[in-house]
Every structure is written in structure tokens, then in C-alpha cells.
Design goal:
Layout: H1 2-41, H2 45-51, E1 52-64, E2 67-74, H3 75-82, E3 90-100, E4 103-112, E5 115-127, E6 130-140
Parallel strand pairs: 1-6
Antiparallel strand pairs: 1-2, 3-4, 4-5, 5-6
Helix pairs in contact: 1-2
């Protein structure tokens, strides 16, 4: 009986690990295709929209005469902001993926010409069996260097 229970527990654990790995791989694929490549390598609005939920919000600090405030920008506004940005040689690194059921968070880093440019913090939701980026904020490590 103990062997049967042990076998059931082992199979359940392996199944859960495989599902989490599969979700992690799916999340990392969306992160690479719809964010890193479509934003930083070559702007591709269609690829961005494929991985970002229509209710996406980008949160970032802005200096005002009254001090620093946090601004929220919706997907269409964010696309306009980034559409004309140009970057040098881009590399990315996924630091962490935490997934629990239908929700997840990621921490990733963007490097430009070998120097860390951003640490990105994103929230995710699984919608109709597809992982979508719902929100983003970041920490900037250096001023962006424009590339021609």
C-alpha cells in the first residue's frame, strides 16, 4: 500500500513539474517574441498585440513640477511611445518566472550593447489557454543609447 501511495505521489509531482515547465516555456516564448524582439529588435505592432492583453497597463515614474508621480499608460498609448524608439544590439535574460495556475509574474533584464538597460517586472494572465502580458513596470539602469 505504501508503494502505491508513493507511486501516486511521485506521478502527481512529476505531472505538476511538467505542467509548470510547459507554462514557463510558453511564458518565455511570449516574452521573447512579443516583447524583446517586437519592441527592442525590430518594432512589430502585430507581434506585440499578440502577446499583450488589450487591458495592459504600463506604469512608469514621471517628474512633474510637484515631484515624481507614477503614470499609467494603456496599450495603444504605449505602442505610440515605443514605435519610434531605436536600440543598439539587444540581449535579454529571464531572471524569474513565477506561475501559479492562471496567473504569473516575470522578472527579466534587457541589455543594450552589453550594458544592462532595464529590469522589467511583468504580470501575466492565462486567457483562453494563452499567456498574455497584463502589466509592466521597470527599473532603468542607464539612459537609453539611441541607435541609427
Amino acid at each position: 500500500m505504501k508503494r502505491i501511495l508513493f507511486s501516486i505521489c511521485l506521478i502527481s509531482s512529476i505531472s505538476m513539474a511538467v505542467a509548470q515547465t510547459s507554462n514557463r516555456e510558453k511564458i518565455e516564448k511570449v516574452l521573447l517574441n512579443s516583447y524583446v524582439n517586437a519592441v527592442f529588435v525590430e518594432f512589430d505592432e502585430q507581434a506585440i498585440r499578440a502577446g499583450f492583453h488589450t487591458d495592459f497597463l504600463f506604469h512608469f515614474p514621471v517628474m512633474t513640477p510637484n515631484g515624481r508621480v507614477l503614470k499609467k499608460v494603456e496599450l495603444d498609448q504605449w505602442l505610440k511611445m515605443i514605435s519610434s524608439m531605436k536600440f543598439g544590439k539587444i540581449e535579454s535574460k529571464v531572471i524569474e518566472v513565477y506561475e501559479s495556475g492562471n496567473a504569473a509574474t516575470t522578472i527579466s533584464e534587457i541589455y543594450q550593447d552589453g550594458k544592462k538597460l532595464y529590469t522589467d517586472y511583468m504580470i501575466w494572465r492565462k486567457v483562453d489557454d494563452k499567456w498574455m502580458i497584463m502589466g509592466k513596470t521597470f527599473d532603468m539602469h542607464q539612459r537609453m543609447m539611441r541607435s541609427n
